[in-house]
Description:
The model has no long low-confidence stretch (mean pLDDT 88). By secondary structure, the protein is α+β, with helices and mostly antiparallel strands. It is 56% helix and 16% strand. The two termini are 65 Å apart. The strands form two sheets. Strands 6, 7, 8, 9, 10, 11 and 12 form a seven-stranded mixed β-sheet that branches. The chain has helices spanning 5-56, 65-77, 112-120, 161-212, 227-283, 289-320, 333-350, 371-387, 419-422, 434-439, 446-456; strands at residues 81-86, 91-94, 122-128, 135-142, 152-160, 329-332, 353-357, 366-369, 393-401, 405-412, 462-466, 470-479. Magnesium ion binds next to helix 8.
Amino acid sequence: MNISLRKKIIFLVLSLLFIVTLAASVISTMEIQRYYKNRIVDQMIVQLDEVEYLLGTQVLGFHDSTRYNELARYADHSRHRLTLIDSTGIVLFDSHVTMDSLHFLENHLNRPEIQMALKSDIGQNQRKSATLNHTMFYAAKLYKNGGKQSAIRFIRLALPIEEIEAVLNTVRWKIMLGGGIALILIAVVSYLIASRLTYPIHQLSTVAEKIKAGNYDERFDVSGSDEIGELADLLNDMLDKLKYDLIRMKKLEEMRSQFLGNVSHELRTPIFSVQGYLETLMENPGAEQKKQQKFIKKAYRQAVRLNNLLTDLIDISRIESGEMKMTFNPFDVHDWLHKMVMDLKETAAEQSVFIKLANEKNEHVKVLGDRERLNQVILNLATNAIKYNKINGQVLLGYTVLRNKVEIYVSDTGRGIEKEHLTRIFERFYRVDKERSREVGGTGLGLAIVKHIIEAHDSTVYVESEIGVGSSFSFRLRKV
Length: 480
Ligand SMILES: Nc1ncnc2c1ncn2[C@@H]1O[C@H](COP(=O)(O)OP(=O)(O)OP(=O)(O)O)[C@@H](O)[C@H]1O
Ligand SMILES: [Mg+2]
């Protein structure tokens, strides 16, 4: 912001004020000028009447030099130039010219004011005087008082325009002075108002500056119910939300980097193993067949593990990013679990574990869910139940029909999980016994995937476990 808002407001107000004052001054000066001129003309006409009367009553005269000078003095006294003219335009008297010099004056018949007076009794004009060489205002009157002083046809009064101008100048000055004072007063007032008006905005920008510098606990402290107060409240609300989001984002960021660390750690182990086995094979080309086979098998197992890990990782990231869309369809629980048991029988037997469906007869209950994803859930839970079981242990898959839900469970007769681990086994990469889990090919992602899928079904995974007795994992699906 180059020019502050306050300066802009002040500038605007002052410009407006200047224009208004100027216009008002010009208009009022013109009006007053006209008014004064009219008044002067009126006064001159009164004066003309007076002169006419005085001439008529012969109080004033001009025929001998004494009376001529007396009349001149009378005119001087009233600050006018008085001229008496006969019907042919010859000047009979002029207060600014001596009696002897009268015959030097030119004929006045063609003077505009005289011509006007001839037509409409009264005439007026403003021009440069040929006789006196400066601008004068003239008013002439047709003299009708014929009887006495009969030679007079026109009475004319002249006033130097400077006199009129002087009066008007004073008026102009007064108006300008008034305008100037008003301008200063309003400038001061508008400065104060602008300061008051922009103060909260200034405050807002100060706080905003602090927030920009990373001080997220800063809040706008502008009270009042006007727009700026409302804006401050709005911004504060926004900041609260933003701060909350920021905390969440930081947490997510932390989780992400932790996840990335875990991933690289988990990937490194099998890759190093594969590398190690292959190196041993390369360095001992003459080793006996059986030994070579053993190493190749070991390398292969690590490769499989790597593949499983990547599949799980891709799954989890697809679920978490929301890329994996669930499609819910109703299906028969009994048939579904029965099929799962059949599929898992072989894997279980390999580990000397017996797996079976707990429900004997089909209750023909349907549930709503994404069967593909739920297969994955049962597979993960049952694989755990088999993996972490004991020789000749048992795994039970089953369901309980509730009022509008069906509870599905996977229970085992394994070694159980300690209380301290129970809440954490659903975290990514969390394993109770890292070595044992790795031995059986686990990465610690299985339960995290289970949790995500079940939550996408608006449900929760519960776990109950007793050391040495076994564990049971369960969740509920909507009955249809
Ligand atoms: N039925 C169970 N009995 C005992 N311990 C279990 C059982 N299920 C899970 N666990 C414990 O919880 C941990 C986390 O299980 P999870 O399925 O997430 O990972 P995993 O089995 O180690 O690896 P993955 O499933 O990714 O191959 C396991 O390492 C194991 O210690
Ligand atoms: Mg598992």
